[in-house]
Amino acid sequence: MESSHLIQPLRLVSWIICGIYATIPIYWLMVHPFADHWRKARYKLELLVPLWIAMWCVAWAVSYPWRYAEFHQGPEGWALAPYLWMLSLFLYSRAVRGLTAARIIGRQELHADAASGGLVTDGIHGVVRHPLYLGHLFTMASFAVGAATVACVGLFLFAVVMGAVMIVFEERELRRRFGAEWDAYRKRTAALIPIPKL
Is the pLDDT of residue 78 over 70? Predict the structure, then answer.
């Protein structure tokens, strides 16, 4: 009985977090395909941030009926969640090396005067092209597995699909900025899952 009192709040927190994380790809889908527009726009974050917060509310509203609908009862999923959190923290810590805060938040996409900087291809970026997104997916997976609710799993699957679409648009933008250097990097480096070449 005591564990059920703890599991319900954990499921609620997981649902809230998954609702936010599930919308990260949509935020970037508002940015990457329209980078030229945002560079000319007078108001950027004043428009984008409220739109992103509105997306959280949509994600929560759509998934609300299933926030406690469970695939299984009990705390078993939480035994695996810490390992997924550790993987996501490892990826985040490696992914930010060589990146400034301005690059992480997408200043190049939003501001015409932002210095582009070079293409980061070393460290974890030499293993996968999108380690931050992979970290996001591991974070969401940890909450989806731990909570084991229909809402969290559904939001996770939504983020996977939208993340794949987002990567396509982001890579078009990177191709436009870096040209042949990007093509060579893309050819030798996996997007998310490194597969050894035989």
Answer: yes
Q: Is residue 112 within 8 Å of residue 40, measured between CB atoms?
A: yes
Report, in angstroms and rounded to the nearest whole number, the Rg of the chain calculated over CA atoms.
Answer: 18
Tokens of 110: 């939003």
Tokens of 16: 């809230």
Tokens 């007078």 — which residue? 42
pLDDT category at 134 given cuts 50, 70, 90 is very high
Contact 190, 128 (CB under 8 A): yes
Q: What is the mean pLDDT of residues 52-81?
A: 91
- Please state the φ and ψ torsions of residue 71, each to the nearest 5 degrees: -80, -35
Give residue 2's pLDDT band: very low, low, confident or very high (50, 70, 90): very low
Tokens representing 72? Answer: 């299984």
SS (H, E, C) the chain: CHHHHHHHHHHHHHHHHHHHHCCHHHHHHHHHHHHHHHHHCCCCHHHHHHHHHHHHHHHHHHHHHHCCCECCCCCHHHHHHHHHHHHHHHHHHHHCCCCCHHHHCCHHHHCCCCCCCCCCCCHHHHCECCHHHHHHHHHHHHHHHHHCEHHHHHHHHHHHHHHHHHHHHHHHHHHHHHCHHHHHHHHHCECCCCCCCC
Say if pTM beats, i.e. exceeds, 0.85: yes
Q: How many CA atoms does the CB half-sphere of 36 hold within 13 Å? A: 5
* Side chain identity at residue 153, one-letter code: V
- Could you tell me the two tokens for 58? 């949509």
